[in-house]
TrEMBL record, chains A, B:
CDD domains found in the cross-reference section: Fur_like (cd07153)
Lineage top rank: taxon: Bacteria
Organism name: Candidatus Carbonibacillus altaicus
A Gene Ontology term for the protein's cellular component: cytoplasm
GO molecular function: DNA-binding transcription factor activity; transcription cis-regulatory region binding; zinc ion binding
Name of this chain's protein: Peroxide stress regulator PerR, FUR family
Amino acid sequence: MTDLTLEERLEEAVKTLKVRGVRMTPQRYAILSYLLETRSHPTADEIYKALADRFPSMSVATVYNNLKLLKEAGLVRELTFGDQASRFDGQMHDHYHVTCIVCGRIDDFEYPPMRFIEKEAERLTGYATAEHRMEVYGICPACRKAQEEAKQMAMVTAKAAGNEH
Amino acid sequence: MTDLTLEERLEEAVKTLKVRGVRMTPQRYAILSYLLETRSHPTADEIYKALADRFPSMSVATVYNNLKLLKEAGLVRELTFGDQASRFDGQMHDHYHVTCIVCGRIDDFEYPPMRFIEKEAERLTGYATAEHRMEVYGICPACRKAQEEAKQMAMVTAKAAGNEH
DNA sequence: GTTTTATTGATAATAATTATCATTATCGGA
DNA sequence: TCCGATAATGATAATTATTATCAATAAAAC
Ligand SMILES: [Mn+2]
Ligand SMILES: [Mn+2]
Ligand SMILES: [Zn+2]
Ligand SMILES: [Zn+2]
């Protein structure tokens, strides 16, 4: 329950990797710290591009390799949505996501894990359940505002056209 | 709330398509009826293979084209899981899924849609929410049984090895 | 420092899906 | 019933995300 700083979390993560016999490299460290500090749930390619100026020769394969390794070490998680590419999340505490169906933005929201639904599935299907995933879809505040303004604009235009008669 | 038969549901679906100006073809009809009757949540490729003996010359592109079209007409839905291919579901009533992390099997389970979680997301994030997705992960009855048996077998083997000393 | 071997980076391979386009078949109307 | 406009099919190329391969490089234990 202690609220660690970014530096403390990074230190922890490095320790975890060392215990696993994983060597630390500049590329690996950059990917890890990028994921620990960002809130944007980036794709592999976005991470690749974000680090391109600091590591101009880094291969995209290195990004994928490290994401897989970090995931296996329990330091990041992979979020898989419909069509596009996987997204990665360095915030490992239990939380849910809302995603904007207009701009693709993904935001966290904190809500206690709904274990009851796992129990319910267990009861109804005979599965031994272990976890669940849940995302909410909607329109983010920025896109809502944009839509409102577009609607206003359309109304004004329609009115002006009407007055021309 | 009326419980339509398979034939009635098919008839309905065909009508829906006609209204949309969509022509009926043997391939399309086969894909549609396959999805309406199965409970297995097949991939595009599985549908393709299942119909291969009846339509040996059907292109895989035709399967994809039709799945997209049926989805847009609201007659089937697409389920996207982690890595692998999309799965398709012809059961359009609200329901949730459990999937087996061992064999990949997907089963339905009926539970009233948890609208409260959409409201909660709305309150916490300012999104205008519209829907959510939720799946439970676990081990299906068949795989549980297989695991139990494997464990028994291992125990017996260990005991026999012990007796040899 | 030397040595071991995990890691990197370049690139090829794979897999799912979409795009292209010439040929074919549906279906409303003559 | 036949016709014509055009939607749909099937073959195949293209695209995209991801994984595999492997020689060169660089951690880090000694
Ligand atoms: Mn998150
Ligand atoms: Mn289902
Ligand atoms: Zn948005
Ligand atoms: Zn199973």
